[in-house]
Amino acid sequence: MSGVDAQQAEVEGHLSGRRLPRWSTPALAGGALLVGLIVQLTGWTVVGLAPGVVAAIVFLLGQAITSLAIEGRRHSKDRIATTLIYATFVVALTPLLWILITVLVKGLSVFDWTFFTSTMRNVSPRQPGGGILHAFLGTLEQVGIATLVSVPVGLLAAIYLVEFGKGRLKFWISFFVDVMTGVPSIVAGLFIYTALILTGVLQQSGFAAALALCILMIPVVIRSSEEMLKIVPNDLREAALALGVPKWKVILRIVVPTAISGLITGAMLAVARVAGETAPLLLTTFLAQDINLNAFNGSQTSLPTFIWDQISRGTTSSVNRAWGAALALILFVLIIYAAARILAARFTPKSR
Amino acid sequence: MSTSTDETAQSAADPAGISGTAIRAGDRNFLGLSRGAGILVLAVMAAIAAFLVWKAIPSLQADSANFLTEQSWLPDQTPSVFGIAVLAFGTFVTAVIAMLIAVPIGFGIALFIAFYARPRFGKALGFIVDLLAAVPSIIFGLWGLYNFMPAVTSFARWLTEYLGWIPIFANDKQLWTKSLLMAGLVLAIMVLPTVSAISREVFVQVPRMHIEASLALGATRWEMIKMAVFPFSRPGMISAAMLGLGRALGETIAVALILSAVFEVNTHITEPGGNSFAANIALKWGEAGEVGRSALIASGLVLFLITLAVNMIARWIIARRKEFSGAN
């Protein structure tokens, strides 16, 4: 864009119409900030708007009007659009940074060795101290079971869609995989409760929670695996088939290994997505204050439900613990997420 | 799959054929397994609907009030009295607020990444927006309750002070927290990544030729977006918005933490009060008795059907587009 502007400056008055000089944008921004500062210092303002908002409006209007006067209506509109689109980017970054910094600051203040190595046994809500070990182990176990169920099922379904499926059945499966991605997490919890707990197949337990997570995880795994299997070049399949290798062997020995890094990435992103789910777990497990490694019996806490529990107790030290657990959860999710992305960036087949 | 069975039949008839039957058996088993996994998806979707209906029936029969219009939620009382009016209203209002904010901003971010930022920077930015999607909803709730809400209260007060003559912004309680507005604002932040990620995918599919042609004809960048990008990506943008809507409707924990326990239809959106389908289930589950849980399941069924419809329409628009798009 800067190169284009320089060119336009050279040919000014010839091929393009009159343009605003390049210093106009910083000048206007400076002016707008000055107005904002005056509002801030004097306290005088229009209809109670905050100084930052006043500055933004001054900048937008100033640019629109100068541009309208010098460049004409079309360029004026273009400048308004550009400013607004840049603004959306700032608006998107604000909450993300705000959340991450808040969680980091408040979480770090309760992080210490005991926070990771102890449980909530014999710790009353008002007391400081206690830890998240039981919740972390619960999360590992529930998410682990969910992954063990979802990844094979999801991969097989994706193989069906890519390698075998055709006609109506493929269309409907593919369609409902997409629709299933949008099933609210609380509905997944309700489903496991009505189908397995009310009917007496399972108790409220870590395993029931893991199954609820599966409902959320399977469609994500299918969708990502499908994308990965699709980019495996057909030449590989045809070469193997031409050598007389049976199709199932082609899939297991050629197609899946070729796509394996992408498949793992997809599975990890799915793990990151369900690791923070709270709502379905509230319906399918009871909360424990101590370690319970048996997913089939008794209550089991996980990190998200631990946070929920601590918030609902509402004391200062319990809310502090919630922040600590929130930081632990966000680190857990982000580490999986970042690892998956790095893996994907490094090992994705280049041909497309 | 039909070819493999045909060939099996053929080779069975002709034992000296070039392919043996043993290999085909392996194929058939594998096909069966993978097709089974695919059909499981359809079965689960059907089972969700079936079980929710089955377990919702007892409470619907016990309900002595109108399920659709009753404004209280006392299912465990005798006689049982409950209805979804408050939930439907709260869900609708929070979702509308979220969409009003998240849709334009989400499109803006997607446009920024696709057409304004340098490619490398745009990619990094896409990653960052995806990170926002990876933040668990309980953390949005925690942050919303303790940080966002206190900070945004002044905005809610401003709305009442200067726009209070519009009935929805009036505030008789003189309390500005735990309102539908707050829940809607947090939801907006939560659905932002959904809207922007999907619309970004649509924007980068716009044929390069269309873009360059319009720029070559002297269009400004905004005119290029308006005349080359939007017409091409309209269906994708609509479905991006609808998928965001689906997420906003079903969000549970963040809304449950932010809204107060006041169970009423309150058209003053800056006042505390109101509830949503999903949040109500999470909040009332622990204390609910048998009929109470069945009533919550009934409200969950309504939520499921609404999100199902929204998602199906969104996906249908995308699927229809794929068929006649000559883009790739």
Structure description:
The complex is a heterodimer of chains A (352) and B (328). Chain A is mostly helical. Chain A has two domains: 2-102, no CATH class; 133-347, Orthogonal Bundle (MetI-like fold), CATH 1.10.3720. Chain A is built from 14 helices and no strands. Chain A is flat. The model of chain A has no long low-confidence stretch (mean pLDDT 88). In chain B, helix 1 (2-13) packs across helix 2, helix 3 (85-116) packs parallel to helix 6 and helix 4 runs antiparallel to helix 6. Chain B is globular and about 70 Å long. Chain B has eleven helices and two strands, in the order ααββααααααααα. Chain B has 328 residues and is an all-alpha fold. Chain B has a two-stranded antiparallel sheet with strand order 1-2. Chain B folds into two domains: 2-61, no CATH class; 74-324, MetI-like (MetI-like fold, Orthogonal Bundle). Residues 1-16 and 324-328 of chain B have low confidence and may be disordered. Chain B has helices spanning 2-13, 21-62, 85-116, 119-134, 137-163, 180-203, 208-216, 221-250, 253-258, 277-284, 290-324, and strands at residues 73-74, 81-82.
The proportion of residues forming helix of chain A, as a percent range, comes to over 70%
- In the predicted model, the low-confidence regions of chain A spanning at least 5 consecutive residues are none
What's the CATH architecture name of the largest domain in chain A?
A: Orthogonal Bundle
So what's the CATH class of the largest domain in chain B?
Answer: Mainly Alpha
Give helix % range of chain B.
over 70%
- Largest beta sheet of chain B, briefly? 2 strands, antiparallel
Going by CATH, the architecture of the largest domain in chain B would be: Orthogonal Bundle
- Radius of gyration of CA atoms of chain A, rounded to a whole number: 28 Å
In what order do the strands lie side by side in the largest sheet of chain B?
A: 1-2
Average pLDDT metric of chain B: 87
Strand content of chain B: under 5%
Look at the helices and sheets of chain A and give the structural class: mainly alpha
The number of helical runs of chain B is 11
Annotated CATH homologous superfamily of the largest domain in chain A = MetI-like
CATH superfamily of the largest domain in chain B: MetI-like
CATH topology of the largest domain in chain B, by name, is: MetI-like fold
Give me the Rg of chain B, rounded: 26 Å
